[in-house]
């Protein structure tokens, strides 16, 4: 091509200046032309020739030159494609007669060839001409190949020589019969499925659910059998087989099983490997070809010694088969260690000769039938041009095993150790340590994350082995084995059962490492310094502690004590560092502006000015939680062993609480509660000290006013436990927790009770208690969960906003005794106690009386005639919480209000108080209004709440929390106002809510609460738009909600409430589809909703939202099948539905349809008929018993149709959507 | 630069106009080098392993033969431009077939930039400009640079990039460039100088880039 061009280019034209052209163009053109002709004109020449354009030319010509050079270089590479195509049809290359191709990859093609002069079979790797981009790289290749050629090691594939012929460069290797380890791993992974892996680890098989066909790679040939000295033999693994037998038998096996095509597999390049990933049929072909042999092998399995007596082709097993046979035994670990020893010895040898492999990865390690591992392609990675690698995708295969330093272009022998470590990792876990499939992500994984602990993947992996692997793959080369030999020795020790030299990283080391790898958290230098000091100092502390045990204390006391104090300082610093880490984790993904007070409100030094904190904990991962947990354990041990000071204990308790927060966010409720309880226990201990200060304490800090941080923290944590339990569907313990919090706070000494913090906390607790009905009924909190959750500012209760699913864990079904336990008298005691305290000992006692009076007066205004049993429009008996409950709740509300108003009077600038007041106003509107709705229009209070929140948003525009609450309040109030306003007005509220939520979600995509709020508001609006002409719009809205929720459930798989929300949205969408007559999609939606709970194996036989939801879904499915006349399917669905809710006496009603219902899926519930089969009565008659599940949702009617009014009637969480749906299904005119 | 076409004799062209396919092949071969260059420059790296530049030229040549009847009309100004258009369409078709649908309508693109989306030109430019940074085991750095460069190139205007690509990587003359882009030769020339100057700035902004380019 270049010839063409140069032939075509003649000088004549260059002087012909086209008048139209820019003179610079003319000069540059000529310059370029000369470049193309192989001249290298100087810029100076042109500058002189075109003085008028001198400046421009000086600047521009170098760019021209560069482009021309690059093009030529690029073209010369591509040019050689032609030569490469010659490779594919290659018959003979010099002395070598090509027999067949056995693999190809980025760097070239590997053939099996006969070296005619010597009559031997060899592997010939013909390098793609594109591998080289300059004569220099060719020289380098030859030099490398020669160096490698001088390596003689059992485990290194010998390179016989290099050469070039017809412009093709090649090198000659011994032909090895073996499987690349990557294929072994694939085979083992497939086989491990359904089989017992060591100490049975089901998660492995679960991980890889693809078909578990036994797959093995078979290969043959190689007359130059290896002098196989198999180190793994030491472990009793992989008995060597005489090579003659081996060859013979494998040929035999090959002839029996397949044709020539699969003959002998030797060096495989990653390209093929990658191709295979996308073309499973390759693997299938191999499977097929080998199935027979493989099956036999699996049968003969674990008893190697008996195999000698078998016919040869059965005796000989591929490495995969042999390893697979070991899988169920501990021998497998030894076998892996054996492989590691072989490779590391080979590496050590090569390193000793100054050769680095540079590309250790499973596909570059062949394992033959004797168990010998062979390293291929020594040092060749260096030759391959990156561009070529990139183009062929080979880089990806290589990249996965690159060390962190290699990624940034550095390399030494420890990088080989690292790559080997990752290879062994994969042999242990059957999956790559860096498993991303996108190049950028892999690099990220390598540079930022340590591989996941192998034992986390398979706990059966021996601890020592894991420690060895982790040491080999340490992020920093300094932390690895410093030589490959050290690795080999430790592996040897492991096999022999001796103690290994590597030690697991201590918690401090982990902390340090973690910190170092997360500079993105923008740590201050100070923090880093603290960490450094801490890490260094903690070991001293351990030393001191040990010395203490053995030392004569009297003699050394002074010195030791001094050291101990210093060490404790260090520990304190470590805890601070820990806290920063926690903050870092909890703030992840948030812009600086929302880093409000992430410390718990009550604990801040100045409770008065504590900012309400955005309840926004962004994405944390399981790995974060695990790391923190481990660190925490370390601190706890430490603190308990060493009788740390109260400060340190407080820090530890705080840390523990944080861990609880994180667990809660992850949906690991049991762990969250456990962590909270631990924290609370510690705070309780501290609290004793606060409340009963020793003389010494008082004397040592005479000027410090007494603080009650720990004392209050106990209560705050109790609330967190309560909330967590409530969300977990355990209302009983939630109620008990409210009780105990209130009694606890009431029992505090007066000086503590009078503190504004304490009163505020009590108010919050009471608001939360008052919110129970709405929460539990799902009427309010159930939706966006914004509601009256009694959250205190600064609490980071993640589920507070996401409680969609939990509400129906109705305490009235499961936990009535809980209410009774919290008897009114103790509550009232607590309350009056408090009111007294605040009045008498408040900060401004002189205002006490009037404040209280006015508060009471005000309360009287709004609630004076509140009568829970009032009027004919009041609740039917059994259709709401029991009366004593109602009274308690009302009292709680009133108390909370009194407390809050008192606080606001003391400080009307405190946004936390305002926020809490808004929440109070939003709480339990149904209760508030129940007695006489005309006297206390819930709308007034709701609107007041909204006004407060709007003011807060206005005053603090940067605080997303207020905006969230406003949006939440709008959405919540919409539900209430539906009864009073026109649908258009209600829709407007939802739209405003959606607008705010959408902005929030856009701004903080990682905060799930915003997503949930948005999704639920969208769904609500969709439900509201029920008239036929609005259907498309309605569908659009719910589709958006579904897509948001789908994402959330992916990100937070542990959060059941998100799943329930999604299920509900799907259900609604299904209804819409039905109305649009698309009945198949209806079923699809239901099935998707059902599948959200597939992972739950056992269902609680107590009422719980998940069973309720599922039951309802199945009922809908049953209805669908009924309508379609698919009786048996309907019966099956019905059976499922009934079984899921055993507590619903008599089971749910069996649907009966009339034709008019069609197209109105919800209709059947509105027209329940007596069921012939179970003879059930219509729902109304079943509404009596609180424990009895109604047979269907209540009939809705404008006056009594408030969905909140009957938590008991709820069909679990499903109740919401069902009642919603009913509302929606009913034309607004009705 | 018309020196490129010494063998494009009027006689040859006349034979093509009369429908002589052999003559068309000859004519195609006259331009083959530059057409190959264009294919090489524009080829999606994802296709590199699967399709050879020569395959594309082969197919384009066959398409040209199919359209020999329209040669007189379509190739009246420049046979090279005609061939180039056919090759471009062939390539786009192949890309579509192998890599997937183009983001934008191919027809639209052809009318604007002679067949190539600005994005693909940008990527191709970056890829070729990076050619010299192929030190081994620096793949990661290279990728980083590559994206830096693409970003930098994307700050140039589409036309600027096209002009550079055509003038240097496809070795089109100024007059041909002007034809493809549908502008006057004067404008094309001014554009070229301006684009050079921008490129120069873009490259100097990337640390160490111009230093390496020796």
Outline the structure in words.
- The complex is a heterodimer of chains A (1230) and B (214).
- Chain A has 53 helices and 9 strands.
- Chain A has 1230 residues and is mostly helical.
- In chain A, the strands form 2 sheets. A 6-stranded antiparallel sheet of chain A has the order 1-2-3-4-6-5. In chain A, strands 7-8-9 form a 3-stranded antiparallel sheet.
- In chain A, a hairpin with a 2-residue loop joins strand 2 and strand 3.
- In chain A, helix 27 (622-642) packs antiparallel against helix 28.
- Chain A is globular and about 105 Å long.
- The N and C termini of chain A lie far apart (82 Å).
- Chain B has 12 helices and no strands.
- Mean pLDDT of chain B is 71; it is low at 1-6, 101-115 and 132-139.
- Chains A and B meet through helix 1, helix 3, helix 5, helix 6 and helix 16 of A and helix 2, helix 8, helix 9 and helix 11 of B.
List the helices and strands and how they pair.
The complex is a heterodimer of chains A (about 1250) and B (about 210).
Chain A (H helix, E strand, L loop, with lengths): L1 H7 L3 H4 L7 H14 L6 H7 L4 H26 L1 H8 L3 E2 L2 E10 L2 E8 L4 E8 L7 H15 L9 E7 L2 E7 L4 E2 H12 L9 H6 L35 H15 L12 H9 L1 H21 L11 H4 L3 H8 L4 H22 L12 E3 L5 E3 L10 H7 L1 H6 L4 H4 L5 H17 L9 H10 L5 H4 L5 H10 L11 H13 L10 H11 L7 H26 L2 H35 L34 H21 L3 H20 L3 H23 L3 H6 L8 H19 L3 H16 L3 H4 L2 H15 L1 H6 L33 H4 L1 H6 L2 H18 L6 H16 L19 H24 L4 H12 L2 H6 L7 H18 L4 H18 L5 H21 L4 H17 L6 H21 L4 H20 L3 H13 L13 H19 L3 H14 L22 H4 L47 H12 L5
Antiparallel strand pairs in A: 1-2, 2-3, 3-4, 4-6, 5-6, 7-8, 8-9
Helix pairs in contact in A: 3-5, 4-5, 8-14, 12-14, 15-19, 15-23, 19-22, 22-23, 24-25, 24-27, 25-26, 26-27, 26-28, 27-28, 28-29, 29-31, 31-32, 31-34, 32-34, 32-38, 34-40, 34-41, 38-39, 38-40, 39-40, 40-41, 41-43, 43-44, 44-45, 44-46, 45-46, 46-47, 46-48, 47-48, 48-49, 48-50, 49-50, 50-51
Chain B lengths: L9 H8 L3 H22 L10 H14 L4 H4 L4 H21 L6 H8 L4 H12 L9 H16 L3 H12 L4 H8 L3 H21 L3 H4 L2
């Amino acid at each position: 091509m270049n010839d063409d061009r140069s032939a075509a280019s003649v000088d004549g034209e260059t002087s012909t200046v086209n008048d139209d052209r820019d003179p610079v163009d003319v000069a540059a053109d000529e310059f370029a032309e000369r470049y193309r002709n192989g001249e290298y004109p100087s810029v100076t020449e042109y500058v002189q020739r075109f003085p008028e354009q001198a400046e421009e030319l000086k600047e521009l010509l170098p760019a021209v030159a560069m482009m021309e050079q690059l093009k030529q270089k690029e073209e010369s590479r591509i040019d050689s494609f032609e030569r490469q195509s010659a490779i594919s049809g290659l018959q003979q290359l010099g002395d070598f007669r090509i027999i067949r191709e056995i693999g190809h990859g980025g760097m070239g093609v590997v053939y099996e060839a006969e070296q005619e002069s010597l009559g031997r079979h060899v592997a010939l790797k013909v390098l793609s001409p594109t591998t080289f981009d300059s004569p220099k790289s060719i020289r380098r290749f030859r030099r490398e190949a020669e160096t490698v050629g001088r390596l003689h090691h059992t485990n290194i594939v010998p390179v016989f020589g290099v050469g070039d012929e017809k412009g093709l460069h090649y090198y000659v290797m011994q032909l090895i019969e073996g499987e690349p380890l990557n294929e072994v791993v694939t085979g083992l992974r497939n086989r491990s499925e359904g089989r017992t892996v060591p100490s049975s680890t089901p998660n492995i098989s679960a991980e890889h659910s693809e078909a578990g066909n036994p797959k093995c790679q078979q290969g043959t040939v190689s007359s130059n059998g290896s002098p196989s000295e198999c180190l793994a033999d030491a472990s009793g693994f992989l008995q060597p087989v005489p090579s003659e037998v081996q060859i013979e038998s494998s040929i035999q096996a090959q002839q029996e099983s397949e044709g020539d095509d699969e003959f002998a597999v030797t060096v495989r390049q990653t390209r093929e490997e990658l191709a295979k990933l996308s073309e499973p049929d390759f693997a299938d072909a191999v499977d097929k070809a080998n199935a027979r042999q493989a099956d036999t092998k699996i049968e003969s399995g674990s008893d190697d010694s008996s195999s000698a007596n078998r016919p040869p082709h059965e005796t000989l097993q591929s490495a995969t088969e042999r390893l697979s046979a070991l899988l169920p035994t501990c021998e497998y670990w030894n076998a892996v260690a054996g492989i590691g020893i072989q490779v590391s010895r080979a590496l050590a040898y090569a390193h000793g000769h100054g050769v680095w492999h540079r590309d250790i990865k499973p596909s570059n390690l062949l394992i033959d039938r004797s168990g010998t591992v062979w390293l291929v392609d020594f040092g060749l990675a260096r030759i391959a041009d990156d561009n070529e690698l990139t183009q062929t995708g080979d880089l990806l295969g290589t990249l996965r095993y690159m060390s962190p330093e290699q990624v940034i272009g550095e390399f030494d022998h420890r990088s080989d150790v690292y790559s080997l470590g990752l290879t062994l990792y994969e042999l242990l876990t059957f999956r790559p340590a860096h498993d991303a499939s996108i190049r950028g992500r892999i690099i990220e994984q390598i540079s930022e994350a340590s591989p996941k602990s192998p034992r986390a993947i398979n706990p059966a992996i021996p601890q020592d082995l894991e420690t060895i692997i982790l040491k080999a793959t340490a992020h920093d080369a300094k932390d690895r084995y410093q030589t490959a030999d050290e690795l080999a020795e430790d592996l040897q020790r492991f096999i022999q059962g001796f103690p290994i030299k590597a030690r697991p990283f201590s918690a401090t080391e982990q902390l340090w490492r973690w910190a170092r790898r997360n500079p993105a958290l923008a740590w201050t230098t100070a923090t880093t310094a603290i960490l450094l000091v801490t890490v260094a100092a903690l070991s001293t502390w351990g030393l001191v502690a040990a010395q203490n045990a053995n030392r004569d204390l009297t003699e050394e006391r002074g010195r030791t004590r001094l050291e101990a104090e210093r060490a404790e300082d260090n520990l304190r610093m470590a805890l601070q560092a820990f806290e920063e880490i926690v903050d870092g984790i909890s703030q992840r993904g948030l812009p600086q502006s929302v880093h409000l007070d992430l410390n718990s409100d009550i604990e801040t030094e100045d409770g008065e000015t504590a900012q309400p904190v955005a309840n926004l904990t962004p994405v944390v991962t399981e790995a974060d939680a695990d790391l923190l947990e481990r660190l925490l354990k370390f601190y706890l041990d430490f603190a308990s062993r060493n009788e740390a000071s109260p400060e340190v204990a407080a820090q530890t308790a705080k840390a523990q609480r944080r861990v609880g927060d994180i667990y809660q966010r992850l949906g690991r409720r049991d762990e969250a509660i456990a962590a909270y309880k631990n924290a609370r226990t510690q705070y309780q201990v501290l609290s004793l000290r606060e409340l009963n200060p020793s003389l010494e304490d008082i004397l040592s800090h005479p000027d410090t006013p007494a603080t009650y941080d720990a004392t209050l923290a106990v209560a705050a944590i109790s609330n967190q436990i309560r909330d967590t339990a409530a969300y977990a569907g355990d209302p009983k313990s939630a109620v008990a927790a409210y009780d105990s919090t209130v009694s606890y706070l009431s029992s505090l000494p007066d000086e503590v009770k009078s503190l504004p913090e304490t009163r505020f906390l009590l108010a919050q607790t009471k608001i939360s208690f008052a919110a129970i009905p709405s929460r539990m009924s799902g009427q309010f909190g159930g939706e966006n969960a914004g509601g009256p959750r009694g959250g205190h500012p600064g609490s980071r209760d993640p589920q507070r906003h996401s409680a969609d699913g939990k509400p129906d864990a109705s305490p009235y079904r499961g936990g009535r005794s809980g209410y009774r336990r919290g008897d009114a008298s103790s509550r009232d005691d607590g309350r009056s106690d408090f009111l007294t305290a605040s009045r008498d000992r408040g900060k401004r006692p002189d205002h006490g009386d009037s404040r209280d009076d006015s508060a009471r007066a005000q309360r009287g205004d709004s609630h004076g005639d509140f009568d829970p049993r009032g009027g004919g429009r009041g609740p039917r008996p059994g259709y709401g919480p029991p009366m004593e409950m109602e009274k308690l709740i009302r009292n709680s509300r009133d108390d909370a209000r009194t407390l809050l108003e008192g606080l606001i009077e003391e400080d009307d600038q405190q946004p936390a108080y305002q926020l809490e007041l808004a929440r109070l106003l939003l709480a339990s509107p149904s209760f508030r209004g129940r007695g006489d709705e005309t006297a206390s229009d819930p709308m007034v209070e709701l609107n007041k709440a909204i006004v407060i929140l709007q003011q807060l948003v206005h005053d603090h525009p940067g605080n997303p929390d207020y905006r969230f609450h406003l949006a939440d309040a709008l959405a919540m109030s919409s539900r209430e106002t539906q009864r009073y306003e026109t649908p258009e007005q209600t829709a407007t509220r939802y739209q405003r809510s959606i607008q705010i939520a959408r902005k929030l979600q856009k701004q903080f995509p990682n905060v799930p609460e915003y997503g949930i709020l948005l999704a639920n508001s969208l769904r609500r609006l969709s439900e509201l738009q029920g008239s036929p002409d609005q259907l498309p719009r309605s569908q659009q809205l719910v589709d958006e909600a579904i897509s948001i929720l789908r994402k959330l459930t992916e990100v937070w798989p542990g959060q059941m409430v998100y799943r329930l929300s999604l299920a509900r949205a799907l259900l609604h969408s299904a209804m819409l589809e039905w109305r649009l007559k698309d009945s198949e999609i209806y079923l699809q939606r239901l099935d998707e909703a059902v599948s959200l709970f597939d992972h739950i194996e056992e269902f609680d036989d107590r009422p719980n939202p998940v069973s309720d939801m599922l039951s309802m879904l199945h009922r809908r499915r049953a209805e669908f099948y009924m309508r379609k006349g698919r009786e048996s399917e309907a019966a099956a669905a019905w059976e499922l539905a009934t079984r899921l809710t055993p507590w619903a006496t008599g089971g749910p009603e069996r649907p009966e349809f009339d034709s008019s219902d069609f197209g109105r899926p919800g209709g059947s519930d509105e027209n329940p008929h007596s069921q012939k089969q179970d003879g059930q009565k219509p729902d109304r008659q079943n509404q009596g018993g609180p424990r009895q599940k109604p047979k269907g949702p209540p009939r809705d009617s404008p006056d009594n149709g408030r969905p909140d009014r009957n938590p008991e009637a709820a069909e679990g969480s499903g109740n919401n959507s069902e009642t919603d749906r009913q509302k929606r299904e009913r034309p607004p005119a009705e | 630069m018309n020196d490129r076409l010494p063998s494009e004799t009027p006689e040859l062209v006349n034979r093509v106009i009369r429908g002589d396919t052999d003559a068309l092949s000859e004519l195609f071969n006259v331009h083959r080098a530059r057409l190959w260059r264009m294919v090489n420059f524009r080829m999606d790296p994802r296709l590199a392993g699967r399709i050879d530049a020569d395959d594309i030229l082969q197919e384009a040549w066959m398409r040209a033969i199919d359209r020999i009847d329209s040669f007189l009309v379509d190739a009246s100004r420049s046979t090279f431009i005609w061939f180039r258009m056919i090759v471009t369409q062939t390539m786009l078709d192949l890309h579509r077939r192998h890599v997937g649908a183009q983001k934008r309508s191919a027809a639209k693109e052809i009318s604007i930039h002679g067949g190539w989306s600005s994005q693909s030109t940008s990527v191709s430019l970056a890829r070729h400009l990076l050619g010299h940074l192929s030190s081994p085991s620096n793949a990661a750095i290279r990728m980083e640079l590559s994206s830096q460069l693409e970003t930098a190139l994307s700050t140039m205007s589409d036309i600027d990039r096209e002009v550079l690509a055509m003038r240097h990587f496809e070795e089109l003359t100024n007059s041909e460039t002007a034809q493809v882009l549908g502008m006057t030769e004067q404008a094309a020339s001014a554009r070229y100088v301006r684009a050079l100057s921008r490129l120069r700035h873009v490259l100097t902004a990337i640390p160490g880039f111009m230093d390496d380019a020796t």
